Amino acid sequence: MATVSLEKVSKSYPNGTPAVSDLDLEVTEGELMVMVGPSGSGKTTALRMVAGLEDITSGTLRLGGQVVNDLSPKDRNVAMVFQSYALYPHMTVAENIGFALRLRKMPKDQIRAKVAETAQLLGLSEYLDRKPGQLSGGQRQRVAMGRAVVREPSVFLMDEPLSNLDAKMRVQMRSEISRIQRRVGVATLYVTHDQVEAMTMGDRVAVLHMGRLQQCDTPQVLYDHPDNVFVAAFIGSPAMNLYEAAVSADADQLRMGSQSINLPPEVLKARPALGSYRSKTVVLGVRPEHLADAALGAAPESGTSLVVDVELIEALGNELQVHFLIDAVRAESQEAKAATETEELVGLPIQGGGSKTTGVARISPRSALHAGSRATLHVDTDQLHFFDPTTGSAIWS
Ligand SMILES: Nc1ncnc2c1ncn2[C@@H]1O[C@H](COP(=O)(O)OP(=O)(O)O)[C@@H](O)[C@H]1O
Ligand SMILES: [Mg+2]
After folding, report:
1. pTM for this structure?
2. CB within 8 A of 332, min separation 6: which ones?
3. Whose CA is nearest to atom 14 of ligand 1?
4. Are 137 and 241 contained in the same domain?
């Protein structure tokens, strides 16, 4: 039985804004479920409905199997975990952790025992007499979680708890929160707009866009098999390259601008549905790591490479991120556009007119490519992604 279950849950605000539409989601016992999506996609609204801070317009919310749509927040046994700075600075760690129990008028010796037990679980036993100001960021985060744990909630809810921290701290806190969550074993719904945070922390990740669930699965499945163009563009950094491509009459070739890629028969065999796109357009997706500098490899199979103009190379030590221009049309589905917005803001001006667009490849640091050179990039045709240009849905079986 799922600890948290949302069934066709929708929320429209009084001003008519549909913030969440028909959301189906289950968080199982002990699971860390991350809900991720761009700003305004409905994450906070969904979380607040689970907490009982926001009315549900339609649908069913269950906690531990019981319908709780109309239950007040305090009767739901859920705990919102706040950012570390929400600790009371003048109270000791022990007082901070025990605060909720004191409000409940629990006897002092019982509070002491509960606090000690919680501190033990979180590795805070040595710090009980300290004030938050005397703790590291990681320890403060643990105290913040301790305040929630001590109430023995059946669900943890966290809304972008790391958004105000600097990059280094964020990485540290990510693993800290995951570790504590696993130790405590409480079902957790964690909200973030940061797909890297989602991928590194989530047992499963639910991708939200415009109030609708796009896909919910393990991080690896989202990455390897995105269900639609939105998920494909949103998950992964640098983002997947997405271009319009024409499928040949025999479905054995893709044409993009002036170039073509031969499709080995296995590609069609693995995705029979691609057969119905003969002589039609698809959205082709190529992850940056599935492109390679053809000059480095053995002679590539003919017809499986793209000729591009290198605009900029970022050397990361372990790899080169090659930003290029290609004679192709970027797939401008509305969905993908929203996800790549920030990327396009820093995109390079496109010179020479025509239909050139940008792309990124992650290639070996041994490559001799440099800005201004023309490159032949080998395409790993086993790893291509195909999407319907109208619906944005992945083309699989
Ligand atoms: N109190 C509110 N009244 C009206 N509209 C709201 C309110 N809160 C959020 N919204 C709208 O609902 C949508 C989802 O918002 P929100 O749940 O905050 O998204 P996220 O947390 O993913 O950024 C947005 O369009 C937002 O403008
Ligand atoms: Mg929000």
Report:
1. 0.90
2. none
3. 42
4. no
